[in-house]
From TrEMBL:
It comes from Roseimicrobium gellanilyticum. Residues 147-402 form the Chorismate-utilising enzyme C-terminal domain. This is Anthranilate/para-aminobenzoate synthase component I. SUPFAM superfamilies: ADC synthase (SSF56322). GO terms for biological process: L-tryptophan biosynthetic process. InterPro entries: ADC_synthase, Anth_synth_I-like, Chorismate_C. It comes from the Bacteria.
Amino acid sequence: MPAGTTLPLQASSLLPPTELATRLHAAGGLVWLDTAVPDAASLSILASQPVEVLTGNIFRDAPVLRRVLQQYQQPHVPDLGAPSGGLFGWVGFDGQFIFGVYPECHVFQHGGGTWLDASAARVAASSSTVVRSMAGASLDMEPLMNKATFCGLVERAQQYIAAGDIYQVNLSYPWTGEWPADLDPLAFYLRLRDVSPAPFAAYLDLAGMQVCSASPECFLKMSGSHIVTRPIKGTRPRGQSRDADHQLANELMHSPKERAELVMITDLERNDIGRVCEYGSVQVTQLLHLERHAQVHHLVSTVEGTLRADVDQVEAFLACFPGGSISGAPKKRALEIIHELEPHERGLYTGAIGCFGFNGESQFSIAIRTAWREHGRMHFHTGAGIVADSDPAHEWEETRHKAAGLLAAAQGV
């Protein structure tokens, strides 16, 4: 959406986001911040053909991002609620980033069924592109850790908890499989969004990597000086019947362990945001809210605040990254223990996916339930939060529940 453009166009005269994505995909460099569970307030944001691709480490190279954001800076329009262009991409768990520079983007309002940019009409008039279906295709994914090894890591983490080093830590392990040469990554993403619809889904194709995300978790949303984070903790699978589903949700809602874990992480996030917000502005506006997703139930909290005048959005990101829900508490020591115990690097997993908007409208999800294609292979990770009274076998099962959506998409189930 070019700067200053707010003209709504009826979606019926153009294309739905899924079809617009296939046309932009042909141009290269597609980024699609998607929502597969649209509501009145949700947006889908698409762009292609970046003018530049930036790589680096955000802990070292944040000034590079700031310079580009300043170069393309646009006025903030509070009522717009969407970027009009920006740095779209991801930051890996250890800070490695890939961002495309997109001077404009296409924004679809699901509530009104409208596009917020006239340029979408030009794309709609272009020749159509067919993305080859995944019908009959499958990817064989294998975990790179067995149950006994994972349970051993849980027990070692609990030793650190008993010693007073930490209160909670997130532990994970990777899955990998060969990517068929003739399989279009966008086709895999379209199947993933069908079998595992998520509110913070995304597809990105940058620097030789394709990212397919069905994330349920908002890491940060920033609108001017307003900042929001929504940490997730606590998981139960969906039931096979309505009664079973209700029982599992009720069990999660009343679990002392799961409730305590989310309260702990909510407090951590409140402290992270508080480092960059105006004194007294940080509030927990929602605590222990039950959310239902395609494969699992989660508990969610919402923390909001107002950034200080001397803090930009890159600094706010750095103050909160990586998210507390996928690291642990206290965060610094939890990160040290993660690097000690986990034998494989996380890569993109539990990093952040999204954009720094040139107009001050920025959003990032936590990179969970997220697969990526790189060097002819598909990768994803699953993990669980560990506390003093965690049952290692139960935590192993939780990691399998969290893998269900990606495995279903990979296997064509």
